[in-house]
């Protein structure tokens, strides 16, 4: 089981409502008012702040809009208002800074959100009373090297996948773990997932479910050409390196996607290096274990 | 990557030839002679010692036969002469005592043996020169509790499986991890495997390959009744507990097997507790990584 | 879609209640009374007839008990009272004679029963009004040849599997289709299934779902040693022959099971020949298609 | 087993060399010369004819170049020079006209080509001696309906798949078989394959191997969101209809690909109707059965 670290009562809270518009504005309005009333500073993404007064979004005058990619360093807690996807996307901006994240679930049953919609004020109560606590969750640091030089870098809480583009030709992906050759995958693509991401795309592609608290990455090919290429679980410390190998004739286009949010086109020869990020995600865990959520989603407990 | 610990030159070596008879006696004869010549004490299992002078087995007069289940505590190294199975079975007797094990492979390509047949004298040279080193490999401690009391205990280097007997009725196996319910498996059976055992029965049943150096157990159902019951990877520290659940009518017989070697019949209600053994297996690793062996066995590297 | 053949109003009906005792006796009592009242002769298995007057089973004086393995040839319809398993087992005794079978489901949702418990009198109404119709469903004729001679024969509506016994050693099963070698399976066992049986053990072992109306057998290995051994769908007309191949040393025990009901021990060298039975099962189909049942059982239709 | 129909000695033969240029021109030069010498008319695709005199391609003066999409109706035989892909693509143009196709394999082991490179003159000998014979192989007729009208139509010898485009959002694919709802697939896409195509993309996506001579389509989802959505085998006569279902917000782009050769973009709401083509592919089968090829490719026969 993972160690729980208490979160001191926050003085500045970032609200991160679901990105696709007004659906989460009611909850954001309510949370902003409650926090402000209780003397806690409220921060929201600038694009949300710009919407104040429209679409049902009301923000106190004291609420501050901040550019999501250059956040101030004094945020004590992020409250994500939406589903697992919202929490994942919101956490991308604060995880490196060690800001703990808690989710209020506005939609379907998920794995990450600790609170349901009707508990919006309860999470604020709990935060202010110092009753929240976070667990570390393995994240991935990703680098793309092109022609020997660092071309791009990012992080992933869930997964990274490398996949063909519109023309579904097989990619040849030479994969190394801890400096040793693992396999040359000939496949539609390849998923490298953290334990957190194991119940997402990895599961659809045939990978195993991996419990939080394990320090492993799982490498799962997507529609591999060879039937012997099965999912492989490796120590996160060893790192995973994938090179888009030739031949150069008849190749497809390829791209890399991290957490379904960060996407870049790849060139033949690009090398993608994945390793454990230095700072884990500081997640306020759901009260239900991943197994209880799975049992509910999948009917595992039924007699 | 796993840390390597050097093995000091041994003064007493146990030879463990393959169990099914004369096939490994030539190698045992040669190794015993070479060790004795160089002043190293030789120990063999009593049932092997009893065969000396027959079937091509010659042992020096100084070689000692010992009961395999009450070994002296002064053995410095076990040399297993056979394949992966021989090494697994031999290691069962010495792993708890912290005796390092090295394999000389007399058969097909395997994952565990560090030396090939033609290297029989080389392993002795390396041992006496202090050039051998071991890596820790996760082992499993297993307890069977019946009617609230400890009924049996054992260990597994590879895997434990719980399965129906001759009448192939579904077993209902209530499974807990770290004190939380995981799932009620309705299946032919259930495999719990260490990383080392992941390429054995687990792979045939649809489980992932798990690299050495990860501290995880993998739980893989055998022919599960529900399609949502997929392999699950959990932290070894959390432990896995399986209870053979009812109903009591129409049940099959059931049994537990560890490493294909230790087998006991189960009763309805039995609880099987698996956790990381305190003492890991001290294995002299093969020079080829598990991935290189897989690549060779499965054709992963081919263009 | 399969052709539907109307069933003329029956003059003699066999009731086949679930085998495990009184659970289905209420329904049998009710059906026997209704049929007798309406002038239809009632037949039941002798072991059921012997229970009349006990356990809530009441039979009219005119009801006849018959030995299940030497049925008279004047039965016009079998009504199975139970679940899919009851219908399967009941049909074993009448399918070769071309007697149509209709199921009244007393338990969980199933694939085979056309009527629910509350429709017990409705099925009788429909039968007497000539409103029932049957579809042909592929059955399997099975022969076991030992030392060159026919040793046993039987049929299967669902599936045949060949599997190790209590000692779970790999079986080597040399398999031929239409006179051509298919594969040498090294596995816990092998399932050969009709379309009807494809949603049973075959599905748990990783096989595909096969729609009724296809004239195919599906061959699915159980925990195959080689990852390339995938399920294979073949024309039923070609037949499937499986030989339990050596080596002779270290073999397990093996057995064959048909429809979970007929079980015989196998010897090394036994050859099992499976082909389409001449007489298909004449089944009154469920109003819901197999897909609708699957959708309900598995949540396929959900948005 | 499939019936074999003899092919009378041809008077006009179409040569179809691999499309990607000079690789197959040597074989085409040799075949064209041999046929012309023996008084058989030679036809080649116009784009090949235009290359005569370059890249090592020499054609007799009498050889005729024809537009591939408006072939004359007097072709008696197509000889495909290349691998399985070449034969598939070549057959697209002649299969509807009932022209038999025979492959000369210039590359890796394949399933479709009856002759190897060194047998180029042998196939001509066999053809002229009337020793060739074809088997019928199930093909698929495909229609795309848009807004209630026929938008496009084509055929497939191997498979049709419907898949997301560059943005890998889940597609919702409402699927019907024989007029009944099968399932609403939420997946990266869906493959519908003939028996011939079952060893291609279908196998990589987890589908079964389907023997030639079965009149079935196999429906295999690509990375389905739900673990219960397994491959389904249905009677080809029943047809398969797939509708790209909403919701309309946040949808990906989608497209349809037939035999990897014919590709069209899809719009939400498009309905794809697949049924058995009236004219099967008339294929001169490989001497080795599909099982022997599989055994060789996959090592199925090894002890």
TrEMBL record, chains A, B, C, D:
Active-site residue list: 84 (proton acceptor)
One Gene Ontology cellular component annotation held by this UniProt entry: cytoplasm
Localization terms from the record: Cytoplasm
Catalytic activity, EC: 2.7.1.23
Listed GO MF terms: ATP binding; metal ion binding; NAD binding; NAD+ kinase activity
Keyword ATP-binding: yes
Domain of life: Bacteria
HAMAP family: NAD_kinase
Protein name (record): NAD kinase
């Amino acid at each position: 089981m993972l160690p729980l670290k208490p979160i001191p009562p926050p003085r500045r809270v970032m609200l991160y409502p679901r990105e696709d518009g007004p659906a989460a504005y009611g909850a954001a309005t309510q949370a902003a008012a409650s926090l402000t009333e209780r003397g806690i500073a409220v921060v929201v993404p600038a694009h949300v702040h710009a919407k104040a007064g429209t679409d049902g979004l009301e923000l106190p005058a004291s609420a501050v809009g901040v550019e999501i990619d250059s956040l101030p360093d004094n945020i004590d807690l992020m409250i994500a208002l939406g589903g697992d996807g919202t929490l994942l996307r919101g956490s991308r901006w604060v995880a490196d800074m060690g800001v703990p994240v808690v989710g209020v679930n506005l939609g379907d049953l998920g794995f990450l959100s600790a609170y349901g919609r009707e508990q919006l004020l309860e999470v604020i109560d709990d935060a202010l009373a110092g009753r929240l606590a976070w667990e570390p969750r393995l994240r991935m640091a990703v680098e793309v090297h092109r022609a020997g030089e660092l071309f791009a870098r990012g992080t992933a809480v869930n997964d990274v996948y490398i996949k063909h583009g519109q023309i579904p030709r097989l990619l040849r992906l030479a994969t190394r773990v801890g400096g040793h050759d693992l396999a040359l995958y000939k496949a539609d693509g390849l998923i490298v997932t953290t334990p957190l991401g194991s119940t997402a795309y990895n599961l659809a592609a045939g990978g195993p479910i991996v419990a939080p608290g394990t320090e492993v990455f799982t490498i799962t090919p997507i529609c591999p050409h060879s039937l012997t290429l099965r999912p492989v679980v490796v120590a996160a410390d060893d790192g995973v390196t994938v090179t888009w190998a030739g031949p150069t004739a008849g190749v497809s286009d390829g791209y890399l996607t991290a957490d379904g949010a960060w996407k870049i086109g790849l060139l033949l020869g690009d090398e993608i290096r994945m390793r454990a990020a230095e700072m884990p995600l500081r997640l306020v865990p759901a009260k239900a274990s991943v197994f209880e959520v799975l049992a509910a989603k999948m009917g595992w407990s039924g007699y």
